[in-house]
# Entry
Amino acid sequence: MSQIEAENLFKIAHENYEKKDYLKAQNCLYKILELYPENLSALINLSLCYFDDKNFEQAELILKKIIKIKINTPNVILQLIIALEKQDKVDEAIHYINLGIKEKILGERWFIREKIILPMIFKNKDDVKSSRNRLNENLNEILNSEKKILLDIDNQILKPPHFELSYNEYDNLEINKKCVNFFRKIYPQINETNVLKNISKSKVKIGFISEHLTDHTIGKLYKGIILNLDQNKFDTIVFHTQKTKKGQIYESFINAEKNNVIKNYILPKKFKDKQKIISEQGLDILFYPEIGLSLDLYFLSYIRLAKYQITSWGHPETTGNNTVDYFLTSKLIEAQGSERNFSENLLYSNYVPMYYYTPIVKNILKKDELSKNNIYSCPQTLCKIHPDFDDVLGNILKEDKNATIYFLKDLDHTWYKKLINRFKKNKNLDLNRLKFIDRFTTWEDYINHCGKASVLLDPLYFSAGNSFYESMFYGTPSVTKPTKYTKSRLVLGAYNQMEIQDAPIAPVVDKVNDYVETAVTIANNKNLYELKKYYNEKAKKKLYENKFVIDDLEKIFIKLVN
# Structure
């Protein structure tokens, strides 16, 4: 191959890359590499093809090859670290971050990032503990250091470890407080003070802020509250981000504005500009349905933008942040003394604080599809599958020889692959009876999957939320074992609201052995259809579109402001 032929192939590869025809681009680049195996331009472009096609595993291999040839090739280590993080290969990511710092390729942002990186899927229980200990030590190191590291919130934003910390058995109050102090030290912009407008008004002015008020769990959980607050008592504003995806729920907010029910704002990119728009509204209450799901909005919660700032169970754990005044929860959820687990003051609703619309399903399952035994499902995000849950799964398979347990793969199959590798090391797990299926493209397909299951398995330390409400369309029971922490008690709260004291089989248990026994008993119940019908009837009466929830929340908000 002549140089001219190679240049023409490279041009064709680039054209196909621009068209997002990554396979054709890769074929051209591989032809060049057959003769010039260390050609950096070809290798870099090949890595980009794999990376943009979300084949991070193959991108990783190419990037490592480039680094061996020339370690300081621009952006290669950075891209490799991101590819490793996308695969949840945290140990390797840490290694290359440190290498990049040593070679003076990476700066202070990455020095800080290395301190707070955590895996989403843990290798085993020791990995959970050691990762937390490492984070705690690193936070102490930075907080006690006299060295000043100041980052720009707009251009050097870092993902907080807020979520990775949550999916286990530990109390996170103190470590979350420490994380807040950590970020306040490195981002001076989040310590600024806003002058709030004092607008005279007869109604309570309340803002709801989330990137996910669209076809997303958060949108499903909070749409009912936002759209049903009494317009005579409340001025309601919804703040979206430029990353908010369009969808039916998002469109319902747009249409509500056309009918003068609410007002929508799409917040700009710049941190300061976001603050300006929100603070100018003169809000009595700024309500964060969750804090931490959106990087665009997480750090706004560090700033006082309303008289009162509230969060709730979109992420059911304390923020550790003193600028978040209240955590909205329920008497039906919390354990005695749970206020000790929060930096926020608790606001107790008499109901689970959510107005949930009855799911709409066109293709209703037939009785025989709802009556099948021995089908178990844990249709939760895989990061909720704690290593302690592995033995629960093993004991279910041992007690029920006909059992099949279903899980949903993550979109990139990253967590799924890592979890499979963990399961392979557990001799009690028969991988042939653990089925990982692709995520469903519609809500209806997901709800029908839950309906076909004999029983649903609520993870040990981080409970189902929205998915429980969807599963109650058919009434498939979820077995749950709540701890003293809110994050494990959401299914319990929903059951309490449904008033299931007379349930034929009690689905709430205190011990792991009881969890296994109850799950197996339900999955083998000869009257499974009638059992599902019992739960569905309870949900229709008490769970879906419960107007008492709105009345109760309105009283809470009005009392808070007045």
User: Anything to note?
Assistant: The chain has a mean pLDDT of 95. DSSP finds 22 helices and twelve strands in the chain. The first strand starts at residue 204 and ends at 209.
